[in-house]
Design a protein that fits this description.
The chain has 145 residues and is α+β, with helices and mostly antiparallel strands. It has a single domain, classed as Aminopeptidase, CATH 3.40.630. It is built from four helices and seven strands; from the N terminus they run E-H-H-E-E-E-H-E-H-E-E. Strands 1-2-3-4-5-7-6 form a seven-stranded mixed sheet, with helices on both faces. A hairpin with a 2-residue loop joins strand 6 and strand 7 (135-143). It is globular. The termini are far apart. The relative contact order is 0.16.
């Protein structure tokens, strides 16, 4: 069985590893533009990277948007590692770290096609569908208390 290592840190420590996964999933697989994916928010985010040996295979980032709310973003798992529970694991790690940072609520903009994945983790859809990077999304929220 493969053993994964979770890393949590700032952009200086983990940004390159996180962007490697994001580039593969969002830019190469999904056709998101480099300008949209590689935004100016990495520096203010906490990054999470799951590594298989030394290879980053899953990532997420979060930012506190107010004193109690965290926005989880850029959740990505390499195709070769999907279906192994890493998406749920990186989300649980992000929620746990955000709670330690004082967040009581998480919000995310989930791609409509994976809305069910987030719903299984306790997220509820709020509002109407909207488009980000040419992909249908929905805002979802979860109480972290």
């Amino acid at each position: 069985m493969t053993s994964y290592t979770l890393h949590v840190g700032d952009d200086e420590a983990l940004g390159d590893s996180a962007r490697t996964v994001r580039r593969t999933v969002f830019i190469e697989e999904q056709g998101v533009s480099e300008a949209e994916e590689m935004d100016d928010k990495d520096g203010e985010a906490t990054h999470l990277v799951l590594a298989d040996q030394d290879e980053p295979v899953a990532t997420a980032r979060y930012r506190l948007v107010d004193d109690e709310t965290v926005k989880i973003e850029r959740v990505a798992v390499l195709a070769s590692h999907r279906g192994t529970g890493l998406g749920a694991r990186i989300m649980e790690a992000a929620e746990s770290a955000a709670s330690e940072d004082g967040a009581t609520e998480a919000v995310l903009h989930g791609q409509r096609r994976v809305e069910g994945f987030y719903a299984e983790l306790g997220y509820e859809s709020v509002g109407d569908e909207f488009e980000e990077a040419g992909i249908p999304h929905v805002e979802m929220r979860k109480d972290l208390t």
